[in-house]
Amino acid sequence: MILALASTAAVAVALRLDKEAELPPGIPPQPAAIVVDPQIDPVVATAPAPTPAGISRAIAPELRDPALGVLSGMISDSLTGEVLWSRNPDRPRIPASNDKVLSAAAVLEAMPHDARLTTTVVAGSNGQIILKGAGDPTLSAQPAGADTFYSEPARIADLAEQIKQAGIPVTSVAVDLSAFSGPTMDRTWDRRDIQGGDIAPIESLMVDGARLEPLDEYSPRSATPGIMAGEALAAALDVDAPVTEASAPAGDRVIAKVESAPLVTRVNDMLRHSDNVLAETLSIELSVHRGGPATLAAGVDAIEQVLSSTFPEQWKGTTLADASGISYANRTTPALLDAVMTAASGPSRPALRPMLDGLPIAAGTGTLADRFPVATTPGAGWVRAKTGTLTGVSSLTGIVQTIDGRVLSFALMSGGTSPADARPALDAVVGQLRECGCR
């Protein structure tokens, strides 16, 4: 039957190519072209709701795994907000990169989602130009058309082209890093993590997140990100003079400028790749938006102020040292993390909904790309979650759609065991939420 249909289609095409006026009797007319109309089907509000007893039964075997160490957590129904399971949900724990869930929520709740940052080049004197940072670490030194690590970034190449088009002779490049102030590293951070690729000094001018290898997520970072950015512009302009720091002159005669991707795009890049540098700069952007200082400490204060007023009941027990989660001094609770995720996936806080797009997909994207293996763990493709890992700390916060079509939020915080052991154990717990109707 399939071969017959294929033969018929071939005859129809041949006849059309030969420009026959009419098809022979019995030959069906050419079918209409297929129109692709991709859609996302929303979950049905009437999908069967799991019960607390059903959830407990479903995950009980996985909870006995000693690899989970000391486990705290909460699971809720996103639609109703009902708590379906919890274990020490108000106990403050080290969140690791689950801290980024809080940072993303604060930024999306308090700022316009289409906000952009503008990096400028200002004319100095004697042929010097000054590259002035605005706090955008996604600015890329990659050539025009080349791949970039971040989504839709501004490019040094575009700045260089504008300068060339303006016909301005350039003898040297300087950088203005004055948009940020205060320490560039939190006192709880380890400077060895710069070479390790986890962090860089947080300056207002960076390219490619200060990565020495711009497309490598785990690349070592530059210890002088601003100078590195200036060197990228100098190279694009074939200027050999050393790059220095300078203050842009009064009046700011801008000769070139580029804009970052919208805020929501940068937030989702931060979540998907668990990008520490981007998390810290977003927090400073939040502080400045609210009229505060452009410092690391003020960024943390801004997150705390937004979330403590947005989730006052669940805020108790949370103290933050940074916006990225690399500090062991951070503390938060499963109750707060789950409340944020319930709000993002339910009807109560639509401003938080876009963060769901940035959450890594199990066995698919970001930091979950190599987790939830299809052959052994349910949940691949159905779980979206933010990972968190430090030595002896493993966290997982996100959402999962049950086999009956109900969306559940969850926050699981494990400690005291190796992340290599704890992560599969956490995945197994969440996988059971996908498989069960839990009624």
From TrEMBL:
Q: Which family does it belong to?
A: Belongs to the peptidase S13 family.
Indicate what this protein is called per its UniProt record. Answer: D-alanyl-D-alanine carboxypeptidase/D-alanyl-D-alanine-endopeptidase
Keyword Protease present in the record's keywords: the answer is yes
Q: Any idea which UniProt keywords this protein has?
A: Carboxypeptidase, Hydrolase, Protease
Q: Care to name a GO molecular-function term for this sequence?
A: serine-type D-Ala-D-Ala carboxypeptidase activity
Q: Which SUPFAM superfamilies match?
A: beta-lactamase/transpeptidase-like (SSF56601)
The EC number of this protein is 3.4.16.4
InterPro entries referenced in this protein's UniProt entry, alphabetically: Beta-lactam/transpept-like, Peptidase_S13
Q: Does the keyword Repeat apply?
A: no
Q: Which domain of life is it from?
A: Bacteria
Question: Can you name the source organism?
Answer: Gordonia westfalica
**Coiled-coil regions listed:** none
Q: Which gene encodes it?
A: dacB
Classification via NCBIfam families: PBP4 (TIGR00666)
